[in-house]
Every structure is written in C-alpha cells, then in structure tokens.
C-alpha cells in the first residue's frame, strides 16, 4: 500500500513542471486578453494561449521539454475534458427561450449544413483526411477553438491537425469581426438589429469574435448574437455523441468482435452542468469564479497544444486546409445569411 502511495506521489510530482509551464503561458494569455485593444480585436485568451505556446514550442521548449512532457500531456487530455465540462456554467436553458424557436432552427440548419459541407469539401474536393476535415468542420460549424479541442479526444487526432484547424478558425474568425459590421448597412433592409445579431451568432466562429462583431453594430445586436452563439455551443454535446457513433461505425472491428461506441462522457457532463446551472442554485459570484477557472483550464490545454505543435507540421499540411476553411467561411456568410432570412420569413 505504501509502495502504491509513493508511486502515485512520484507520478503526480512528474506532472508539476509541465503543468507549471502551461499555467504560466495561460496566465500571460489571460492577462493579454484583458488588454482592451487585444480583446476589442476579438482575440480570446484561448487564441493567445495557443499562439504563445507555439512560439515557445518552436524556440525554447525543445531544449527544456523533457521534464515537462507528462504535465503537458496531462493538460492536453485531462484539463481539456474538465474545461469542456465546466463550460456548461456559461449556459442556461433560458437562453434558448430568449432566441425562440426560429433561433434554434437557424442554428441547427447552419451547423449541420456547414459540417456536411466540410466533410464533402475536405474529403471529396481537396483530398484531406477525415480527421482534418472533421476538425475544421467542427470549428467552423459550432464554436471555434473550443469545438476543435472537444472533438480531438473523440477522433484521437494528432496535435498538428488540431492546430491547423484552430489556425483556420483564428484567421477567418478574425476577418469576420470586421466583415459583419461592414455588411450591416448593406443588409439592414432585410435584418433588424436583433435578427442581425442572430445571424452573427449563428455563423461566426468564436464567442469572443461574436461579442466583438455584435458590439460594433449595436447593443441589441450584441445581446442577440451572444444568445444565439451560446445556443450553438450547447449543440456541441449532441454533435460529439453523433460523431463518436460515426467514428465507431467507420472503425474496423476486430476479427469476430464488434467495436463499442466510445461515449464522450465529458460532453454528457457538459450538458448536466448546463442543466444544473439553469436552476440558479449557485450564487453568481460562485458561477463567475467557475467560469474564470474554466477559462484558465482551457487556456492551459491550448498552451499545451501550442507547445507540442511544430511549425514544420503545419507547413506540411499545406494550403488545402486553409482553402477549405475559406470556402466554409464564404458559406457561413452567404449560405448562413440565406438560412437566417428564409427561417425568419417562414416563421414570422
């Protein structure tokens, strides 16, 4: 028994250097993300954490990395899952009521059409592997980097593929911050400030980017955009469960044995936390503290991912993933706008 305790203590101690490194990178990212000029440009702490991690991973980390490996791996796997679970504290089911049935229909249609288009473009048109296509599709159709990170354990994807997918989200999501407010005067004839907010929330990548774009139009637009966006975030759990079933279906079964569906339990717990949060049992200060902790955990996971990603692997991926993400971005603006207008017209 004493031997077991000592072994556990020794393995836990092995995690400290890597966790300390990812926490330090996450701390810098969180601090930078609070600078008005940075947050106003739509760069979230998560985006910054992976960027800083990548700089470190391609400069200093190869020299100091050996003692950090187990802690970095722990952050990439376990802290990520815990971060996705705690993400549920950002959501309540009253937010669904606020956007109404039309908002739900718009989100479902936009999400599913974007993901299926990603599967078609990635594998049939550009000849990309399933993992890269699905990761980029998840990031574009649901909630950016957080969706890519949540999809990674289901697919068991390589770090380089995950980073490529996150890079596409960062590039086109940042462009969207400037494009959507610029389009509003041209589209104001068809959209009210509130319905334009639903359009933004149902088609843009990251939560931080949605806030920045909505804020640039009007307070009403910002509020509707955030609610529509958080509703899309809630669709992450059913998406992951369906994806896990598809992964199982495509996996070759062992001779004479049927493979089992790997249920992403962290996705189920994410919904459980959102349901719990809907009852308002915890005081606001406690929820705010948990959301802050969640941001730190996800930033640590992003930092760990960045640290283990080599620029050569991204360069090897080439221009095709970027081109695919560009076409998805165009679809989100044009096709997503058409879906919004059609649903509002039919359900008016």
Structural class of the secondary structure composition? mainly alpha
Q: Percent helix among the residues?
A: over 70%
Globally, the shape reads: globular
Biggest beta sheet summary: none
Q: Tally the helices.
A: 17
Q: What's the order of the H and E elements?
A: HHHHHHHHHHHHHHHHH
In total, the number of strands is 0
- Assess the beta-strand content as a share of residues: under 5%
Radius of gyration: 20 Å
- Subunit arrangement of the protein: single chain
Low-pLDDT stretches: 1-8, 254-259
* Mean pLDDT figure: 85
Distance between the termini: 68 Å
Describe this structure in words.
This protein is mostly helical. It has 17 helices and no strands. It has helices at 2-33, 36-40, 45-57, 61-64, 69-86, 94-125, 130-143, 145-155, 159-187, 193-203, 207-217, 219-234, 236-250, 265-278, 284-307, 311-317, 320-346. Helix 5 crosses helix 14. The N and C termini lie far apart (68 Å).
Essential attributes:
mainly alpha, 348 residues, disordered N terminus, 0% strand
Summarize the structure.
This protein is an all-alpha fold. The protein is built from 17 helices and no strands.
Fold topology:
Blueprint: H1 2-33, H2 36-40, H3 45-57, H4 61-64, H5 69-86, H6 94-125, H7 130-143, H8 145-155, H9 159-187, H10 193-203, H11 207-217, H12 219-234, H13 236-250, H14 265-278, H15 284-307, H16 311-317, H17 320-346
Helix pairs in contact: 1-3, 1-5, 1-15, 3-15, 5-8, 5-14, 5-15, 6-7, 6-10, 6-12, 6-17, 7-8, 7-9, 7-17, 8-9, 8-13, 9-11, 9-17, 10-11, 10-12, 10-17, 11-12, 13-14
């Amino acid at each position: 028994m004493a031997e077991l305790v000592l072994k556990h203590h020794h393995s836990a101690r092995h995690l400290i250097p890597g966790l300390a490194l990812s926490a330090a990178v996450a701390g810098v990212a969180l601090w930078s993300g609070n600078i008005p000029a940075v947050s106003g440009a739509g760069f979230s702490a998560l985006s910054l954490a992976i960027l800083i991690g990548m700089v470190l991973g391609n400069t200093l980390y190869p020299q100091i990395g050996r003692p950090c490996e187990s802690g970095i791996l722990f952050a990439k796997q376990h802290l990520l899952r815990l971060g996705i679970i705690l993400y549920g504290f950002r959501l309540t089911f009253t937010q669904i009521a606020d956007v109404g049935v039309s908002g739900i229909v718009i989100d479902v249609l936009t999400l599913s059409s974007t993901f299926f288009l990603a599967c078609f473009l990635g594998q049939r048109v550009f000849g990309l592997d399933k993992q890269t296509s699905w990761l980029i599709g998840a990031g574009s159709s649901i909630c950016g980097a957080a969706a890519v990170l949540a999809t990674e354990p289901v697919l068991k994807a390589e770090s380089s593929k995950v980073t490529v997918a996150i890079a596409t989200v960062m590039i086109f999501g940042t462009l969207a911050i400037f494009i959507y407010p610029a389009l509003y005067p041209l589209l104001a004839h068809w959209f009210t400030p509130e319905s334009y907010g639903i359009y933004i929330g149902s088609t843009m990548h990251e939560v931080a980017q949605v806030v920045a774009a909505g804020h640039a139009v009007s307070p009403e637009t910002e509020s509707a955009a955030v609610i529509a966006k958080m509703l899309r975030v809630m669709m992450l759990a059913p998406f992951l469960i369906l994806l896990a079933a598809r992964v199982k279906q495509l996996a070759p079964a062992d001779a004479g044995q049927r493979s089992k569906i790997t249920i992403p339990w962290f996705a189920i717990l994410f919904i459980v936390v959102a349901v719990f949060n809907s009852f308002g049992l915890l005081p606001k200060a406690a929820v705010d503290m948990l959301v802050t902790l969640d941001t730190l955990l996800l930033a640590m996971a992003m930092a760990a991912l960045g640290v283990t990603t080599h620029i050569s692997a991204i360069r090897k991926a080439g221009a095709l993933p970027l081109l695919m993400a560009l076409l998805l971005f165009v679809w989100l603006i044009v096709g997503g706008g058409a879906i919004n207008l059609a649903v509002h017209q039919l359900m008016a």
